[in-house]
Design goal:
The chain is an alpha+beta fold and 284 residues long. Helices cover 47% and strands 12% of the residues. The protein starts with 6 loop residues before the first strand and ends in a 7-residue tail after the last helix.
């Protein structure tokens, strides 16, 4: 399932930047050419374009290399609560099947750069990942997104996830002295396989309908409605209106239309027309 909303919360960049700092990468190097200011990282309400987060990931990969090691370590930092209401909606889902269904329907509320889908093959269920980017970043975002899902599944099952396998199309990466591949099973409880026909996490289909320990139908419905409202708001804000909102967050909510238009390199008259074309206005 692919995403169509390019705007995303800046919280993921904060996780990436802090991880890079732990590796000794200066913050200005992490954010270089992303058009993200370091001060923004303290404001969870700020939305950025997905291309800006990709640039931060690209900076990290260029500086540190080893996509597998970076992806595994970075992905492990995305706790279920890192995703906001989407994470709580999954946590309250009564079964894994319903959690996966909800998670994929609202994937645009996450930080994933992969298309993700659920497949059933005989008695096996597979969650398949396909990177939406190409080039050197493809493996990096794949590893990050997939290992982030490992954290999600541990949270959903309170650490008691059933036996599973993780498969990658790529060749087995070179061993790293501080992150040997054999540590994976100890950390996550699954097996790693390379040179496979697809990138996926597989497990017995019987577990799709096992009750989740924190499942609550009423809470799940409330959270899903909030996910729906949030996704609708993101879609409405796409375009000029969203850009205006971001400039206002930087300049302060008491700024003028003229100042905002100036930063957006247009006249206030043009800004008024663009907002009108989107069915909104400066006042709104």
């Amino acid at each position: 399932m692919g995403g169509s909303v390019s705007q995303r919360c800046i919280n993921s960049v904060r996780i990436i930047a802090n991880y890079g700092s732990s590796l000794g990468v200066p913050m200005d190097a992490m954010l270089r050419s992303s058009n993200i200011q370091e001060s923004w990282l303290e404001h969870s309400e700020i939305q950025i374009d997905s291309a800006q987060e990709l640039k931060v990931l690209d900076n990290l990969l260029s500086l540190k290399g080893n996509a597998f090691k970076l992806g595994m370590e970075l992905g492990s930092l995305y706790q279920l609560t890192s995703y906001g209401i989407w994470g709580y909606a999954l946590l309250a889902s009564p079964s894994l099947r319903k959690a996966i269904d909800l998670g994929l329907r609202y994937l645009d509320l996450t930080y994933a750069f992969c298309d993700i889908r659920l497949e059933k093959m005989d008695q096996e269920a597979r969650i398949v990942f396909e990177p939406k980017v190409s080039g050197p970043l493809a493996d990096f975002v794949l590893y990050r997104d997939l290992f982030a899902m490992m954290v999600v599944q541990k949270d959903l099952f309170a650490g008691a996830f059933p036996e599973f396998k993780v498969a990658f199309i790529s060749d087995e990466p070179a061993q790293s002295s501080n992150l040997p591949l054999q540590d994976f099973k100890q950390r996550y409880g699954g097996d790693l396989c390379f040179q496979q026909e697809a990138n996926f996490v597989s497990f017995s289909a019987d577990f799709l309908d096992v009750a989740l320990p924190r499942g609550n139908e009423i809470t799940a419905r409330i959270c899903e409605q909030q996910c729906c409202d949030l996704l609708n708001a993101k879609q409405v804000l796409a375009g000029t209106a969203d850009r205006v909102r971001q400039v206002m967050l930087r300049q302060g909510l008491n700024t003028s239309m003229e100042r905002v238009a100036d930063e957006m390199a247009m006249t206030s008259r043009t800004l008024h027309r663009k907002l009108s074309d989107e069915g909104t206005s400066w006042r709104k």
